[in-house]
Design goal:
The chain has 470 residues and is of the alpha/beta class. It contains nine helices and 41 strands. It has two domains: 8-222, Spore Coat Polysaccharide Biosynthesis Protein SpsA, Chain A; 234-441, UDP N-Acetylglucosamine Acyltransferase, domain 1, CATH 2.160.10.10. Strands 14-17-20-23-26-29-32-35-38 form a nine-stranded parallel sheet, with no helix packed on it. Bound molecules: uridine-diphosphate-N-acetylglucosamine and calcium ion.
């Protein structure tokens, strides 16, 4: 309590940088880790730590960054990007007067946990620090600012790698780029920053030496090196990705999912999988995918933004924005394109492609078919090689196959067309008109058998030889 009111804490997330080392047209903070932008991880951790007052400093492709996060946050525009110190100075200027303490976080450390942020804030309040830092001791400190301490162990400042001499480069203790500051001394120190350094930038890190030199309390908490991993390059991104995927898989296994080979199972953040489901290797569960209980997924399955029920078996398949009902079977080698819905107990077999198609309960499309814009009732059998001709070059048309119908092999269903309840379509038919319920629809040439064919052929050959050789 300060002067009878709670000291107010606001978070500032720095996300204005270009991320030069990524060599990307996309802003660095929007690069994804396990299917989610890096920046979204930091914001989730801040929110989980109990802070709702969050400002995000945007600059490089600001609109794109702000649009991807939505309207929950306050945006501060930094143009041009003159360094982390400049970014925080702009954020401070826009901050309401009643804010007393500021939590500053980088936008490129997706692995930080809410617990570490809470520990940082708690330590800051206990110690009454002007600045409280998160530090770490990675195996290799390369790329991070190094922490300079006095003989008595007090923190004296941070030196950026590009400005460090050999002795400083040997320091293993690094700055995680996450801090809590008391507002007034921070504002004063920021006003004294100079860009006279290797990168010509206003370094936020220089604030630490300024505060320490004034004898103000600068304290620190330590975090695991993995947790503060800063993503500056594609190889850092791959490291973060590996760690996050491992965490996701471990959480799923802890909740009762079997992974035959977790190292080769790729599950995005936010995907859910029910207990007793088995995931075989080389599966990709992406986006807003949900899988139920006791299903068998894989090997070799991609599920994107799809909902898979309980007791489903899917092998070697690609399933996009589709729903697969309880007890269904899909694959091997099936492709369910967006808008496909399989009701309970449906079967979609090998070399089948479905698009915007509903397959009713217990219906089967076992082999070699393409069905697009089709509504298939219950208990239907679609024979091998059946194709819906749903596109006339200009428009897409629906095909309706009612309950209990039987489509013989190699049929072409030229849409719009309806096959009535219990009707049969003869194998090899091209169906251009509706088939009434219970009827047989045949659309093919009648077969003719020509007797003695072989003998007539032999005779013909003999005659040709005789006349040609004369
Ligand atoms: C920074 C720290 C370094 C620390 C490391 C931890 C400084 C000077 N250095 O270095 O001590 O070890 O983080 O990961 O702070 N940003 C802006 N505006 C700018 C510049 C950067 O918003 O003008 C943002 C970036 O988008 C990024 C964050 O600030 O999200 C950090 O910037 P980055 O360039 O990645 O700093 P590092 O070199 O990693
Ligand atoms: Ca960084």
């Amino acid at each position: 309590m300060v002067g009878g009111r709670m000291a107010r804490l606001q978070a500032v997330v720095l996300a204005a940088g270009r991320g030069t080392r990524m060599h990307s047209s996309q802003p660095k903070v929007l690069h994804q880790v396990a299917g989610k932008p890096m920046l979204a991880y930091i914001l989730a951790a801040v929110e989980k730590a109990g802070l709702s007052d969050i400002a995000v400093v945007v600059g490089h492709r600001a609109d794109l960054v702000a649009r991807s996060l939505g309207e929950r946050y306050t945006y501060i525009h930094q143009e041009p990007q003159r360094g982390t110190g400049d970014a925080v100075r702009l954020a401070l200027e826009a901050m309401p007067a009643e804010v007393d303490d500021i939590l500053v976080l980088p936008g490129d450390t997706p692995l930080v946990t809410a617990a570490t942020l809470q520990g940082l804030v708690a330590r800051h309040h206990e110690a009454g620090g002007a600045a409280t830092l998160v530090l770490a001791r990675p195996e290799s400190p390369g790329g991070y600012g190094r922490v300079r301490r006095g003989a008595d162990g007090r923190i004296l400042g941070i030196v950026e790698e590009k400005d460090a001499g050999p002795d400083e480069l040997a320091i293993r203790e690094v700055n995680a780029g996450m801090y809590c500051f008391r507002r007034a001394p921070l504002a004063e120190a920021l006003a004294h920053l100079s860009p006279a350094n290797a990168q010509g930038e206003y370094y936020l890190t220089d604030v630490i030496a300024l505060l320490a030199a004034r004898g103000l309390p600068v304290v620190a908490v330590e975090a695991g090196a993995e947790e503060v991993l800063g993503v500056n390059s594609r190889s850092d991104l791959a490291r973060a990705e590996k760690i996050v995927r491992r965490q996701i898989n471990q959480a799923l296994m802890a909740a009762g999912v079997t992974m035959v080979d977790p190292e080769n199972t790729y599950v995005d953040a936010g995907v859910s999988v029910g207990a007793d489901t088995i995931i075989y290797p080389l599966c990709f569960l992406e986006g807003a995918t949900r899988v139920g209980r006791e299903s068998r997924i894989g090997p070799g399955v991609t599920l994107r933004d799809s909902v898979v029920g309980d007791n489903v078996t899917i092998m070697h398949a690609v399933v996009l924005s589709s729903r697969v009902g309880d007890g269904s079977q899909v694959g091997p080698f099936a492709y369910l394109r967006p808008g496909t819905v399989l009701a309970a107990g449906a079967k979609v077999g090998d070399f089948v492609e479905l698009k915007s198609t509903f397959v009713g309960p217990g219906s089967k499309v076992p082999h070699l078919s393409y069905l697009g814009d089709a509504q298939i009732g219950a208990g239907v059998n679609v024979g091998a090689g059946t194709i819906t001709c749903n596109y006339d070059g200009q428009d897409k048309w629906p095909t309706i196959i009612e309950d209990e119908a039987f489509i013989g092999s190699n049929a072409n269903l030229v849409a719009p067309v309806r096959v009535g309840r219990g009707a049969v379509v003869g194998a090899g038919s091209t169906i251009t008109r509706d088939v009434p319920a219970e009827a047989l629809g045949l659309g093919r040439e009648r077969q003719v058998n020509i007797g003695g064919w072989k003998e007539r052929q032999e005779k013909k050959k003999q005659q040709q030889k005789n006349s040609g050789g004369g």
